[in-house]
What we know:
The chain is of the alpha+beta class. 49% of the residues lie in helices and 13% in strands. It has helices at residues 10-17, 77-89, 100-108, 121-126, 143-150, 158-162, 175-202, 204-227, 233-258, 270-279, 297-310, 315-339, 403-412, 415-422, 427-436, 440-443, 451-465, 471-482, 488-501, 503-519, 540-573, 599-611, and strands at 3-6, 22-31, 48-56, 61-66, 94-97, 118-120, 229-230, 348-349, 352-354, 364-366, 393-400, 521-523, 529-531, 581-586, 589-595, 624-629, 636-637. The strands form 5 sheets. A 6-stranded mixed sheet has the order 1-4-3-2-5-6. Strands 14-15-11-16-17 form a 5-stranded antiparallel sheet.
Amino acid sequence: MENYKCVTSVQEIMDxxxxxxxxxxxxxxxxxxxxxxxxxxxxxxxxxxIVGCSFSVKEHTGIYVPVAHKIxxxxxxxxxxxxxxxxxxxxxxxxxxxxxxxxxxxxxxxxIVIQPPVxxxxxxxxxxxxxxxxxxxxxxxxxxxxxxELCHEPLPTFSEVTNGRHFDxxxxxxxxxxxxxxxxxDFSLRLYHIFNNWFDRFQPKxxxxxxxxxxxxAVYLGLMKHNxxxxxxxxxxERQQEAEGQMERIRNEIAMLIGDIPIGANCSTKAxxxxxxxxxxxxxxxxxxxxxxxxxxxxxxxxKEWCDANRPALSSLFTLVQEYRKWNKxxxxxxxxxxxxxxxxxxRIHPDFFALSTETGRMNCRNPNLQNCPRKSNDPxxxxxxxxxxxxxxxxxxxFSQIELRVGAFYCRDKTMMExxxxxxxxHAATTSVIFGCTxxxxxDKHRKEYKEQRTIAKNVNFGTFYGLFPKGLQSTLxxxxxxxxxxxxxxxxxxxxxxxxxxxxTWQEETKRDAARKMYIExxxxxxxxxxxxxxxxxxxxxxxxxxxxxxPIQGTAADILKLAIVRILExxxxxxxxxxxxxxxxxxxxxxxxxxxxAAVDFIRKCMEQQPFPEFDLPLVAEASAGESFGSLEELxx
Length: 640
C-alpha cells in the first residue's frame, strides 16, 4: 500500500528527504488566467505556473507539496521556491524525473537551472530494449504505459482525476489529487531502480550514457525550449507576399505552356503527370515504389535533360516546375510553417527538441523543424534572417569543424589523416592529393586550373569516405549537388586511389563490418548500441544497408556523444552566466542569444566546453568555430 501524504511546510519536505542522495520529483501545472481555455497551455512555462510539486525518496512513499491551489492550504511559495533553488542546484543529490526537459523548462522560468547529477527515466526507457533488437521509442516510454508494463500497476489518467478541471482547481488536500501528484514521483523512482538493474545486468555502458550524457542533455533541451527562437515577424510576412507573387508569376508562365491543367501546390497532381506521360508521351525516366511514373525533383531533372536533347521546346517547362516547387517549399515550410508556431505569449518560436529520436544519438527538432533551415547558398529569400536577436543582443553560433571526419580519423588510425589533423592541416587538400596524385601544396593552390573541381570532389568524397562509397552514388551526388560530370570509371579510379592513399581506412571498414556481422550490433566509443539484425541477411539490399549503418553509427554516434558532453559542461556553467541563453542545436552547431557586450566571454566559455578532450582515448584536436551577428543569416566568423 502506498504511503502518500500532503505537506505544507518546507521543514516537512526536508524531514521527508532527510539525508537521501536520490530523490524523484515532479511538477503539476495549470494555465495562467489569460490562457485558461487554450489547449496545452499548462505545458507552456510562459502560459502556466507550478501548482504543486511531489517528491519520493523511497518506493511506495511520496509527499505532495501544494504551491498554488485555489482551494485548500498551500505551502509558503517564497520559502518553497528558495528551497527548490537549493534542491535543484545541489551537486551531491541525484534528481530523478520522468521527462526532465519539462521540469527544466518550468524551473528555468523561476530562474533555476537544474544541475547534474540528474536522471531522466524517459531517457532511460529509450535506452532499454523492448525486444531482442529494438530499443523503446518515445511513444513506448510514457510514465503510465511503463507503470502498467513494468510495475504492473495502472495509474489513473489526468482527466480521470481532474474531471475537466485544471489541477489548481482541485482541493490541495484532496486524497485523489495528492495520490496523483505523488504517484508520478514514486513511479519515476521505481523506474529508476528497474532500469538501472537492467543496465547493470545487460548494458552497463547505457547506464553511464543515461546518467552522464542523456539526462543532463534533456535538462539543456528544456532550457532551449523555454528560451525559444526570436524571429522578425514583419520580415516573414514581407517574404510571404514575395513568395506568393513569385508562385503566381510561375503558375501563369506554366499555364502559357500547358493550358489549364491543374498543377496544385507542388506540380504533382495526377492531371499534370497524365499530361507529361500520356498527352506529351514523354519517357518514364523514374518510377515510384509502387511502380507508377515518378514526378519528383530527380524525375524532373532527368526529363529536362531528355528534352534538352530531344524536344528542346519543352525544356523551359521543367525549369519552371523546379522553380515553382522551390518557392512552394520556401512558403509552406519556412514561412507559413514557422509562423504557425509563433507563441502568442512570447512572440517567439519554441520548437520541440528530441535527443534520442535517431538511431545514432543525433538530436532532432520538430514543431517546426528549425534544423532544416536552408544554407545561405540555397536560400533566395534569406530564411535564416527570420531568426533575429532583440535589440542590443547577438545570435552566436559555435560549430564543430569537421567533427565526423576527425572522429573517423580517430577510429581508423590512418597515419596521413591523423597527421593532417594533429598538425592543423587541411583534410580536403590531403584527400585531393591522395585521389588526384598531386602534391599537398598543389592541392592548396587556389590558382591552379583544376583546384575548384578537384576540391569539390575531394569534399564530397571525404563526407562519404567512412560510410562506404560507391562509384554510381558518388557520380549522382556530384552531378546533382555540384554539377560535376564524370564517368563511373573515373569515380571508380578516384575511390581506388582513396583506398590506396588512406590504407588505415579500408582496414578499419573491413574489420568493423566483420565485427558487426559477428555481434549483430555496433557501438559508439562510449557504448551507445545499435542492433543490426539484417547484417547477416541473404538480401543484398538489406545487408548492404546494415553494413553502411555499421560504418556510419560509430562515427556519427560518437560525434553526437561528443556534442552532448560539451552541452553538459555548458549546462554546469549556466547558473553563473544567466545572460547566456541557449536557443538552437543544428547538427554539430550550438546557437545562443547573448547581450552584445558579452560576446568575448561567451565565445571563450563555450569554446572551452566544446574543445575539451571528450574522453581520455581521443587524441585528435577538436575545433569549434564561432560566428556571430544580429540575425542567423548575417553571422560572421570570428577569429580564433
